From TrEMBL:
It comes from Dechloromonas denitrificans. This is Molybdopterin synthase sulfur carrier subunit. InterPro entries: Beta-grasp_dom_sf, Mopterin_synth/thiamin_S_b, Sulfur_Carrier/Prot_Modifier. PANTHER family: SULFUR CARRIER PROTEIN CYSO (PTHR38031:SF1), SULFUR CARRIER PROTEIN SLR0821-RELATED (PTHR38031).
Length: 94
């Protein structure tokens, strides 16, 4: 049983081959960063496309928690609630 919220993560078409072909994945975590850690643990090939070498979000993507960009919130430290949706959106070349 998880104590952390379980969230749906929408995977863009360009990254689906690194996520087992899935367009949506559920993950558990208290922050966006923890969700990405869970996603990358399950699908390690996606990490280099989503996370830059310094540990921040790769520059070719925007991430939205519901309707809000995490860049306008607390970035990867943004807390998540139960049943929220996290959307990864390419904003440039992947």
């Amino acid at each position: 049983m998880f104590d952390s919220p379980v969230v749906s993560i929408h995977i863009p078409p360009d990254l689906r081959s690194y996520a087992g072909g899935h367009d949506e994945i559920t993950a558990s975590g208290d922050t966006v960063g923890e969700l990405f850690d869970a996603l990358c643990h399950e699908y390690p090939a996606i990490r280099s496309h989503l996370i830059a070498s310094g540990g921040e979000l790769a520059p070719g993507f925007a991430v939205y928690l519901g309707p809000h960009s995490i860049r306008e919130l607390a970035g990867l430290s943004t807390p998540v609630e139960l049943e929220e949706v996290l959307s990864i959106v390419p904003v440039g070349a992947v």
